[in-house]
Amino acid sequence: MDNYVITFARGFGSGGKEIASKLAAGLGIHCYENRILTLASQMSGLDEKLFQEVNEKIRANGSFASLLRGLPRSRQYISRNEKFISDDKLFEYQKQIIENLADTESCCIVGKCADYILRGRANVVSVYIEAPRAFCVERTMEHMGVTEEVAHATIAHTDAYRADYYKYYTHGNSWTNPVNYDFTLNSERVGVDNCVKLLQSYLKIKGFI
User: Fold this and answer.
1) CA-CA distance, 65 to 30, in Å (whole number)?
2) How many Cβ atoms from other residues are within 10 Å of residue 65's Cβ?
3) Most CB within 10 Å of its CB: which of 77, 82, 139, 202?
4) Listed residue (206, 153, 152) closest to 183, CA to CA
5) What is the pLDDT of residue 144?
6) 52 close to 63: Cβ distance less than 8 angstroms
């Protein structure tokens, strides 16, 4: 197969982003998360004329990848303390970017309902990473430098936001439904590095690597 995509959904603090990044690094491919949202936000803010110009350039180059790689990559936790509010235009741009990436290069994509957007494609493996709350709280305290109380609140707010986001854009599907994914992994029991090794083995079984 010419190219493949691994999508990641994850509970906040579970280490899903770290697993995706380590897997991508080991495979020599790119890992995309918040740069997709950044580019989609920029596109949705363009007036119609500028948007058409950008679209023409993208069609000429064949991929969004070069634009995404020019954007800064966040290495921090990004939590959601606000309630979910739908933005259909922004999601449509994200969908276009994700579909284009799946068509043109091998990569890991974190969040953004990528598993749903790319469902049914033979070149996609979808993964959900979760862990017990105590493990997620400990990781959140360590990585964000916050108290246990703040860590609990951050996890609760962010996971609720992700659940509402997924439910809205998948028309009622559940974010934590294991049927949506090839793998649902408990990062505490398996371990972050072993999750990476396990996924590498599965990609070999699938004939992707």
Assistant:
1) 9
2) 18
3) 139
4) 206
5) 93
6) no
Task: Say how many C-beta atoms besides its own lie within 10 A of residue 87's C-beta.
Answer: 13
Residue recorded with tokens 């899903």: 16
CA distances 119 to 40, 170, 202, Å, are: 21, 11, 18
pLDDT tens string 129-145: 999 999 999 999 999 99
DSSP secondary-structure letter at 111?
S
- Beta strand pairing call for 5-10 and 30-32: unpaired
pTM of the predicted structure, to 2 decimals: 0.87
Provide the 8-state DSSP code for 110.
Answer: E
Average pLDDT in the 20-28 region?
Answer: 97
Pick the range with the lowest mean pLDDT from 38-42, 106-110, 193-197: 38-42
Distance CA 176, CA 12 (A): 12
